[in-house]
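Dear support,

I submitted the protein below through the web form. The confirmation email said the job was done, but the results page showed an empty box. After a refresh the structure appeared. I'm attaching both so you can tell me whether what I see now is the final result or a partial one.
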Amino acid sequence: MPSRTLRSALIAGFGCLASIHAAAAQIIPNPNMSPTPTIPPIIGIPTPTPPPTPNPAVLLKADPQLARALVRYGQNGVLSLASDRGRFQKVALQPNEVVTVVLNLSPKDYGQPADVQVLDGGAMTTSVPKPVLPATPTPFPTAGPPLAPPNSTTNATPTIPPTPTLDPSTLTETGKLMAVSLAGELVFAFKPGADVGLHRVLVVVGGNQYFLQFWRQDPSAPNNNSRMLRAY
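What the results page shows now:
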């Protein structure tokens, strides 16, 4: 009798355990394990891109607005030309007249090659006589014996001799490769062509272009272009 009771108790205990396990399985399901998250790499501070290296050719390019031009004509006539970024005022010339052009450039152009081109007829030459300047008077000494009173002969105003002119027939060049002097100048002579109208001279230096503009007057209408600069 006791053994039957013990057996019944054991069977009842195992049954209770089975029901508890089934109930627990229904209440707390077996969760699906998520994969291990991937850790993103550490994002560092981006390396700044260095600025582009300046082009030396651009840095050395002169401002064409700094250029100046003079036109010498006759014995002592001089015209100073206004410029619009390297394009200078028109200058009226007589037929077969020869003028001297003095182009002053920026210090960045000193020693640079210069290509001079006659575009619309005419001729030029680089063999230009230099203008004759008056002699510098001798300064009076600051110490010494008394000087004789000045006389009208030795203290007269010095006269400026006329500058030699060029024969138009000697101007045969239609273009020339020159070099900007260490004083920043290009000097050449020019005469217009046979046609009435515009005659241009192009000067190319250091990537810049400079235009000298001359207008050959019509002999039958010498008073044309009254507002234009005249080199006569």
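Response: this is the final, complete result; the empty box was a page-load delay. The chain has two helices and twelve strands.
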